[in-house]
Amino acid sequence: MLPEKTAQTHNKRVDVIVIHNFRRFIPTYIGINPGAINLFFDAIIPYLFSRESLPLGSKIIIIMALINPHINFNGNAEEAFIFYKSVFGGEFAKVVRFKELASPGFPVEEKEENKIMHIALPIGKTNMLMANDVPESMGKTNENENRSKIVIIAETKEEADKLFIGLSVGGQIEAPIGNSPWGSYFGCFRDKYGIEWMVEFDPKK
Fold it and tell me: I need a surface site. Which of 88, 104, 107, 160 has the fewest CB within 10 A?
């Protein structure tokens, strides 16, 4: 159950649902005084959302969800993630093989036993890159699909170069990294596992 804050502003009742982790996380993460955060949630948000256009009793939900990419592989998830780990650094948060979940109700073929059911690699402060192998019985994943890309927003130009060069080894460069028409430092490629990446650094941010 999410904690709920109720505020009285301009004689209107405004229900503000605040995700607890969001409120607790901000002061330590970006160095803002906790008192300022409390003021923001207890006074400013209720004030901003207590205008005539907001129906009485409306609930304001503050989203602090994380979006983490998840990739399907044709039996080479472990190989790919060892490669990604060599570029990003860090350690795997979790590695689960199909054989670990085998049971009478979930039989696993011998050739699938050591394939990856779930693997996760933490990247940066809060992100997680995740994947699994697709069992052969479910068909092959299209390694040339072009509906989705993983976007990396680098903190420096040097970091952008490092990640672009490292991840694109053995892959296909779609746009060499460099200054873009919209003012950022940008490049994109398909890596040697068929995954498409976009790397960008915006010096204005």
Answer: 104
